Amino acid sequence: xxxxxxxxxxxxxxxxxxxxxxxxxxxxxxxxxxxxxxxxxxxxxxxxxxxxxxxxxxxxxxxxxxxxxxxxxxxxxxxxxxxxxxxxxxxxxxxxxxxxxxxxxxxxxxxxxxxxxxxxxxxxxxxxxxxxxxxxxxxxxxxxxxxxxxxxxxxxxxxxxxxxxxxxxxxxxxxxxxxxxxxxxxxxxxxxxxxxxxxxxxxxxxxxxxxxxxxxxxxxxxxxxxxxxxxxxxxxxxxxxxxxxxxxxxxxxxxxxxxxxxxxxxxxxxxxxxxxxxxxxxxxxxxxxxxxxxxxxxxxxxxxxxxxxxxxxxxxxxxxxxxxxxxxxxxxxx
Length: 334
Hints:
This protein is of the alpha/beta class. The chain has a domain at 103-288: Rossmann fold, CATH 3.40.50. The protein has helices at residues 17-20, 119-131, 177-189, 213-222, 256-263, 274-288; strands at residues 59-67, 82-86, 89-90, 93-97, 103-110, 139-145, 149-157, 195-202, 227-232, 267-271, 291-297, 304-311, 317-320, 323-325.
């Protein structure tokens, strides 16, 4: 099986957290282009109101996936089996749920010029992802991008294959991959009632974005939208194959994009065969169906808060987003 699973241990502090502590608000332009990052606004100036409850404590939600030593999902844990550290300090867990009402997936298809040889394979991977969705419970939307984001299909239930319009897309132009991920994450983050994710179908190259991978991961992580990257490349460009001509350190799929995915609680797959694409799609959807949804009490301090989510049992591995921005995570209620 020639696909590569990459994630960063949750105890490692990502490089981008150095600047993320200064970021209190990120806004994205909507109509004709990609977002701009608004950094270091003074506290209280233009800030959205922080959700409050009768307990006067802001509750933050975080999705988590738990596996045992054999890599199998663990599904019988309770709140007492988890620990959440915010900036190194333990936070009180108020709720832990395993039920999954449905999945909301935004498929993001790279149609820039570099995808000319791989676009048909990317479409195949997208169809595999859609085929694993539940017709009744799950919803999906489809977006494409080169230097701008285009909505091909809005969020609907019952989508099992890509819209016909996707067959007419012709690869062309430069690539604003990071910008496209950021804008798509904000769109899927506005969906309520389902577990959300952005699934990116790309060769991994970006030559026109305004934003860096670390800035994008800050946006997606702050609103708890995991980013899954399916890297669609030839065997020669797949660092996990024996015939690869691209070292791991030189491929964005095993460096910057891999970091982006892991910091948001997502995952990277690098695939080069039909079998790889099918397996990656099934594993991706399976992960979204085996999430815990954990609510905990925020410290309430403004700005970026790094998170570590772990299980008390030492043989279990937890994957979750790496932080949140106070006052911007979607709250839960008692």
